[in-house]
Each structure stands twice: as C-alpha cells, then as structure tokens.
Amino acid sequence: MNSLSQERSELVDFITKAYPMPLKMASDVAERFYPVRLGKGDFLLKEGSISNEYLFLTEGYMRSFAMNPDGNDITTGFHGPQQVVFEITSFFHRIPSRENIQALTPCAGIAITYSTLNELFHTLPEFREFGRSILVRGFSNLKSRMLSTITETAEARYLQLLQTNPDIFQHAPLRTIASYLGITDTSLSRIRKEIAGK
Amino acid sequence: MNSLSQERSELVDFITKAYPMPLKMASDVAERFYPVRLGKGDFLLKEGSISNEYLFLTEGYMRSFAMNPDGNDITTGFHGPQQVVFEITSFFHRIPSRENIQALTPCAGIAITYSTLNELFHTLPEFREFGRSILVRGFSNLKSRMLSTITETAEARYLQLLQTNPDIFQHAPLRTIASYLGITDTSLSRIRKEIAGK
DNA sequence: GAAGATTCTTGCCAAATGGCAACTAATCGC
DNA sequence: GCGATTAGTTGCCATTTGGCAAGAATCTTC
Questions:
Q1: Could you tell me if B41 and B94 are in contact, meaning their C-beta atoms sit under 8 angstroms apart?
Q2: Which of B94, B141, B143 to mutate to test the interface with A (most CBs of A within 10 A)?
Q3: Cβ–Cβ contacts within 10 Å for residue A151, how many?
Q4: How many CA atoms lie within 13 A of B156 on its CB side?
Q5: A152 closest-nt by C1' vs CA
Q6: What 8-state DSSP symbol labels residue A78?
Q7: What ipTM did this prediction achieve?
Q8: Under a CB-based contact definition with an 8 Å cutoff, are residues B63 and B77 in contact?
Q9: How many CB atoms lie within 10 A of CB A23?
Q10: Is B42 within 7 A of strand D by CB distance?
Q11: DSSP track, B14-73
C-alpha cells in the first residue's frame, strides 16, 4: 500500500489535472486529507446516513448501490483508483442517503469531511473550480450513460463497459454488473454466451 | 409576456431559494441577465456549437435532444418555467455540444453568457453556491431518472412522468415523450391504450 | 376548406428480456 | 480438504418492446 505522502502527491496530480492551479494550493489542500482504509465488504456509506466523506480512492474498487422495493440491490456506479467517491445528493443536501457505497476489494484512499471541504472552498476560492470540475465530470458521464441506456441494447452496453472499464470485471460479480447494466444476471449470462459463440 | 424587471425579480426569488444569500447580491446578479425570446421551433443551442448561454426560463417549454447514429432524435430532457437551461458538458468544458436545445413553444427568459457567469463567480464568491446548487439538483434528478430507467417498466416511467411533469404532455408530441422514456412511439401508444382500458 | 404534412394508432410478427427452477462451478470458512 | 454458501448457466415459457406498414386523426398552409 502507498504511504500517506504518496497518496497526497497522487491527489495533487489529480487536482491540478482537473483544474490548473498553483502547486502550493493543491498541496495545502492535500495536506488536509486523512487516510481511509477499508476491508472488502466494508461500507463507506450506508443507506439512511449522511454522506460526509469526500474520498479520493488510490487503491481498490468500490460500488454504489440502492435497494429497490422488491429488496434487490441495484448497482448505480463503480469506482476505481484515482476517482473521487461520495454520494452527491446526500453530501451536498445534507440529507440521508438512499444509496450505499461498499468496498468490492480492500481499498485505500484519503478523504476530507464535508465541513473541511467547505472550509477549503471558503479559504481558497480557486479550489472551488476543482469541486465544480468533479461535479461536471460526473454529470457528463451520467448523461452519456443515460443516453446509451435508452438507445442501445443490453449487449452493446455490456461490450462498451467491457471496453471502458475492464478492471471491474475482475473485481465485481456478474450479478452486480448485470444490475448496473439494467438487466438480470440471467440475461447477462445469455448475452455473454451469445458473444462467446461469435 | 412578463416585463424584464418582472423576470429579474423571479430570478432573484429563484436564486435565494436555491441558496440563501443577501437580496442585494441576488439583485446585482439578476441585473446582468438580458432578455431572450424564442419562437416555437427556435434553437437555443445547436449540435456542434458551444453552449454559451445560461438561460433562466420564465415562460414556455423546451427540450434537449441528441441525434443517434440511425438519424433518430432522442429527447434527453424537458425544460419548463423557473428552470435553468444550458448544456452542462459543452458549457463548462467549452467543447462543441452533442445536443440540441429547442423551443417546444414560444419561450421567454433571461440569460447570461459563460464569461459573465464566471465574472460573477469571481466577484461574488458566495454566488458560486448557487451555481453548485443548480448542478447538484440536475445531477440528483438525473440519478433518480437513471435508477428508474433501469429498474422500472416503461409503463411505470410513463405514469411517473405524467404525475411529476404533466405540463409536458400539453406541449410535446408523444413521439418526443416516447424517446425521452426510452421507448418507441408505437410502444408508448400501446401503453397508453392499455392504461386507458383499466 | 382542401391538399398535404405530421402525429398517433393498430395489426402482425420478431427480437429482447424476465421469472423461475434446476443444475454446475467456484469460493469461503473452518 | 470438505461441507456449505454463493455465483453463474441453462431450459422453458411469459412478457415487454420493437419494426414495419397501413390507416385514422390532427394540424398546417395557402
């Protein structure tokens, strides 16, 4: 596992790539992040509580999921290294989350709390641009996922996920991936069989 | 049609509800918005150009849509009075939009440009909180739409849209609503027939 | 108000996906 | 390593949705 200072240095890179700012500013920000370690299956966030950590993941994979009325869990997102992980609605509105965030593998990262993040936004106004860029990126990704969900077949979406996010297939069970794609595990199994036969 | 000053006053209300801030600040912001009028069918944004207006719609209805490879247009969103209309990816990344935004009815609103918005963010740091709240709201809505798209039947999504956004049915053709729901106009027609028979 | 365009509906059949249950394969805990 | 649990596959059939084309209804436009 990387040392805390290595993790902070990764974060500085990440911040300055997302929005160019003085290195000193990015470093000051990174200093405020504290280490977070999660075992496989551990929760970063549980349904009903308020998302209060803004986590920069450096190692491992996580997923977000919601329970639907029938009691099935629906994967709403996957998260990997070099990504910011939190539940936006709960975090910014300060309301209980309807989603869970759970480690698929052992995870390492560094985080800050909601109040520290706001303090940073306040003392370093330029840093808000980073916050905005994370929001915009997430929003854009979700928009394109939405479009592909309503226009493409499950097979096409599966192939696209395989191409853009191959790592996930090594860490998440297919049942989980199926729900992310909006289909049942049975259907995904058949789609894979169909593809394999080609 | 409302006067410009009425529109600005609506915007002040909207801003202070989205994020509490001094009335003076909200008024100063609203002063910078200029009127925009669109006839039915007019475009606020055309695919390939950069979304450069941050529009607060006061009257009328619009839709966003993307062309899919087969040449069909897919509605990605509907917009009504008291909503902010722009294409986030293009606007903030300053890249050509893959979406169009078009007036479904005659529309009135007030707008600012990208550069004026940034200028306001710079001179009134607190106003950024409003910008953030608009992003978070849009993101949250899209997340819940995404979840319902992958978990619910087309009929359930139709009924939900009918309940949460009934106005749209008076202004948008069903074909347009069908693509928003991720189904064909044929299927929507059958779903409506099915519901009517109950 | 008549011709033309657009929108909506319907019939027919095909394709995609789901539900359930049985079965097999892989993994976990001890 | 072994029993128990979890994950993945498959068969059978039902349901949902799509594709296409024709027809009906509605709306533009002159």
A1: no
A2: B143
A3: 17
A4: 8
A5: C16
A6: E
A7: 0.93
A8: yes
A9: 10
A10: no
A11: HHHHHS---HHHHHHHHHT-EEEEE-TT-EEE-TTS---EEEEEEES-EEEEEE-TTS-E
* Nearest residue of A to residue B91, measured between CA atoms: A136
Instruction: Give yes or no for a contact between B36 and B52, defined as CB atoms under 8 angstroms apart.
Output: no
Per-residue pLDDT 10s for chain B (198 aa) are: 679 999 999 999 999 999 999 999 999 999 999 999 999 999 999 999 999 999 999 999 999 999 987 778 999 999 999 999 999 999 999 999 999 999 999 999 999 999 999 999 999 999 999 999 999 999 999 999 999 999 999 999 999 999 999 999 999 999 999 999 999 999 999 999 999 876
Cβ-proximal residues to B39 (8 Å cutoff; 6+ apart), any chain? B103, B106
Question: In angstroms, rounded to a whole number, what is the distance separating the alpha carbons of residues A91 and A49?
Answer: 10
A85 closest CA partner among A117, A53, A60, A116? A53
Q: Chain A contact for B125, CB < 8 A?
A: yes
Cβ separation A139–B76 shorter than 8 A: no
Environment class of residue A24 by beta-carbon count within 10 Å: exposed (0-12), middle (13-18) or buried (19+)? Answer: exposed
Give the sheet arrangement for strand A83-85, strand by strand. Answer: A34-38, A107-113, A53-59, A83-85
Q: Does A97 touch chain B (CB under 8 A)?
A: no
State which CATH number among 2.60.120.10, 3.30.2350.10, 2.60.120.1440, 3.40.50.720 fits the domain covering B4-126. 2.60.120.10
- Cα A145 to Cα A25, B62, B145, B186: the distances in Å are 33, 22, 12, 24
Could you tell me which residues come within 8 angstroms of residue A155 by beta carbon, excluding any fewer than 6 positions away? A191, A194, A195
Q: DSSP character for A125?
A: G
Which residues of chain A are within 8 Å of residue B145 when distances are taken between CB atoms? 146
Which tokens go with A90?
């709960």
**B108: β partners:** B37, B59
Q: Cβ contact (<8 Å) for B149 and A147? A: no
The fourth-level CATH superfamily of domain A4-125 is: Jelly Rolls (2.60.120.10)
Domain extents in chain B: 4-126
Q: Estimate to the nearest angstrom the gap between the alpha carbon of B111 and the chain centroid.
A: 13
